[in-house]
Amino acid sequence: MDKASVINTCRGTSGGCRFALHVDEDFAERLEKVIEESGWPEFLHQKFGEKVNRHKLVNVSAASCPNGCSRPHIADIGLIRACVPVIDHEGCIGCEECIRNCPDEAMEMVDGKVVITREKCLVCGYCTNVCPTEVISCSRSGWRFLVGGRLGRHPRLGMELPGVYSDDEVLELISRCMKLWMDNYVDGKRFGWVMDRVGHDKILLES
Ligand code: SF4
Ligand code: SF4
Ligand code: SF4
C-alpha cells in the first residue's frame, strides 16, 4: 500500500540550525508509525482504492523553532518545538544578553531582575542558548500542537491547542486526531474543516 501521510520536518530537527531545539532522531519515524497504526492507510485504501491522490493524505509538519520553515501553520497537524524558559535569578549577572537576543522582545529588566512577558514569549528557547552563565533553562520541553491549517480556496492557519506536549503526548494526540477525522470524514474536506464542525476540544477530551 502507498504512503498515507506526508511528514515534513525542518532541517533544524536534525540539528542543522542555530535556532533549533533538540528533537529525537527517530521522531519523524514515530510520527509516520502512529499514523500507520491508526487505521488511516486502510481507511483511505477502502475509500479510494490502491492509488490514493496525494491531496487525500494527512500532512504533518514539524519545526524545531517558531520560525516554522517546514510550514507547520498550514499543515493538517503542525508541531513546533518548544521550551518554556525559567530564570534562576540567583546566578544572573545582569548582562542583558538574553534581552538583546530575544526575537520577540519578551524580556526586560525590571528593578534589576530579568522578567519574561509570557504573552509575548513564543517559547523558542533561544534565550537558554545565549545566557553566558546558563541560568536560563526549560521548565518544560516539548511541542506546540496546531490543528487544521490549510491552503487552497479557503486558506487558514492551524488552531493551537493550549499547552506544550511531550513526544509521547503528541503521538497520542495524533492518534486521536486520526480517529476523529475517520469518524467524521467528509470527502473533499480537509481535517481543519472537519474539526471546525466537530470541535477542537474533542481532541483533548476523547480517549
Ligand atoms: S524552523 Fe527554526 S530550527 Fe527549523 S530550520 Fe527554520 S529557523 Fe531553523
Ligand atoms: S523563549 Fe524565546 S521568545 Fe521566550 S523569552 Fe526566550 S528567547 Fe524570548
Ligand atoms: S543572559 Fe543570563 S546572566 Fe545575562 S541577564 Fe540574561 S539571565 Fe542574566
UniProtKB/TrEMBL annotation:
<dbReference type="Pfam" id="PF00037">
    <property type="entry name" value="Fer4"/>
</dbReference>
<keyword id="KW-0411">Iron-sulfur</keyword>
<keyword id="KW-0479">Metal-binding</keyword>
<protein>
    <submittedName>
        <fullName>Nitrite and sulphite reductase 4Fe-4S region</fullName>
    </submittedName>
</protein>
<dbReference type="Pfam" id="PF01077">
    <property type="entry name" value="NIR_SIR"/>
</dbReference>
<keyword id="KW-0408">Iron</keyword>
<feature type="domain" description="4Fe-4S ferredoxin-type">
    <location>
        <begin position="83"/>
        <end position="112"/>
    </location>
</feature>
<dbReference type="GO" id="GO:0020037">
    <property type="term" value="F:heme binding"/>
</dbReference>
<dbReference type="InterPro" id="IPR006067">
    <property type="entry name" value="NO2/SO3_Rdtase_4Fe4S_dom"/>
</dbReference>
<keyword id="KW-0004">4Fe-4S</keyword>
<dbReference type="GO" id="GO:0046872">
    <property type="term" value="F:metal ion binding"/>
</dbReference>
<dbReference type="GO" id="GO:0051539">
    <property type="term" value="F:4 iron, 4 sulfur cluster binding"/>
</dbReference>
<feature type="domain" description="4Fe-4S ferredoxin-type">
    <location>
        <begin position="113"/>
        <end position="141"/>
    </location>
</feature>
<dbReference type="InterPro" id="IPR017896">
    <property type="entry name" value="4Fe4S_Fe-S-bd"/>
</dbReference>
<dbReference type="GO" id="GO:0016491">
    <property type="term" value="F:oxidoreductase activity"/>
</dbReference>
<dbReference type="InterPro" id="IPR050157">
    <property type="entry name" value="PSI_iron-sulfur_center"/>
</dbReference>
<dbReference type="InterPro" id="IPR017900">
    <property type="entry name" value="4Fe4S_Fe_S_CS"/>
</dbReference>
<dbReference type="InterPro" id="IPR045854">
    <property type="entry name" value="NO2/SO3_Rdtase_4Fe4S_sf"/>
</dbReference>
